[in-house]
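Continuing the series of single-chain predictions for the mutant panel. This is the parent chain; the variants come on the following pages.
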Amino acid sequence: MALPTLPRELWLDIFRWATVSPQSLALNTTSYYPFQSDYAPLKFGWQDEEVFSTKRVLVRVCREWRCLAMSLLFEDIVLHKGGDALKHTLETAERGEGDTAAGLWRVRRICLPYSSCTPWQNELVGASEFMKACPQLEVLVRPCRHHAEDMRFDISADDCPSLASLKRLDWWHYNDAARSGGFNSLAHVLHVAPNLQYLTLTGDLWLNLLQREPITLPKLSTLRLRRMNVLFLQEVCRWSLPSLRHILLDTYPSVPGQVGGLWAKFGQQIKIVELGRSLKFYVLDLITHILSHCPELEELNYYVQFTATPHPSVESHHHVSTVRMHAYPNSIVAGGSSTFWEHVEEHILAFQKPSFPALKRIVLHGDWKPYLAGETLARLDTIVRARDCSLEFESIP
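Parent structure:
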């Protein structure tokens, strides 16, 4: 059966829609979108395996589809040991497939496990050379290592090459690896990535790895903090981040009170704060603390069943215009129960006070359909609209 004759541009559009998913979008975005980070757990998937499998099938259908889809296959790769073989494959494709080839310049995202960068195995040189040959690289991921991996970092690694095209860095800090420098050192990578816009940090920092000179990231707009110790948080608070506008907190640091340093340093410039799915936020009222330390805050996003009811002060918050609440259930309260709705109502009513004169939207994300049978939401909608504010539903992109 002959394939239908379609313009190349249309085939490429079809292939693109066939190889995207919420997870792949979240893994590759360099901008902030509400609740999208929940699709990109550093701890688990390095790639969207289903999307990657689809790309592999597309390039095996016929010669024409191979030429069209090769660029999709190599735009997101995991650089395991033996990266020289992958580099050879990419260069061969570039020489042999004409203007549709998937050469090194097609690589947009690289996941670089620590097992690929152990100096004692002389693997880091291959990784370094590979990065130099990827001029369009925008996203670099250093994922959590597997405990079963036998890795030693007793030898200094090569210097990290310039990463001027890099816009996003997802970094799981590993102290033993950081001692070797190069691609294994967060400080070294940040120094050669001046155009970074999105940074995710995870891990515990040792005292002997604190940097003498603070780091400057002039274009960083989004900072996501996952699990980290106090030293790591204090190190971040020493940095210069003049363009920072969005902060995502997955959980509290090991000492909850230390998060105050984050707002003391960056609170005056923050426009959007998002809280993750951690029940630590249910115990301590962080929202009130954020409101009092971020005077320019415009948007507040959180998982309502993982967050304590806020008790904002009577002082006005003149810039808060949007509050987004996600319906994801916790393991304690049954969805749709009276306790569930009481908690939701407390949150919505907390923002109906005169201290929020600019509030225009309360947006409900996630799956609220199982909870819409009762009258509570309709009553809350009436209360919200009475003060010229809207209660909206919005799906996750």
